[in-house]
Design a protein that fits this description.
Layout (H helix, E strand, L loop, with lengths): L2 H16 L14 E2 L6 H12 L5 E13 L8 E11 L5 E10 L7 E6 L3
Antiparallel strand pairs: 1-2, 2-3, 3-4, 4-5
Amino acid sequence: MTTCSLLLLLTVAAVVSAVVSPAAAEPYLCPWRRVAHVDDPFIQKLGKWAVDQQAAPLRFDKVEAAKAQGVGECTSITRNYELIIDAANRVGPGDDKYRAVVYVINRIQPQKLVSFERPA
């Protein structure tokens, strides 16, 4: 192989390796969709888990509304869940609503709490 051909081959290899692979790119996020059966035990357990992750003295009551967003492929079981949770303060009066976003890889593996806040 001549020096020129070798240099061309190395240049092409460098360019190909510099291209970002699809696996390294940000995952595709599908549109948010309302969860039809918010009383599903999985959704309720997810809401209770989100409340239990808080340092605040909150008592979980129920998930009142939920939306799901596929991550990767829209048919994927990897999802973000946005939950509107009814929870009571254990030390003071009154119930409050909280918005939690939970990332779930599948229904078996542990989930990640992305955010937990009072809705504006």
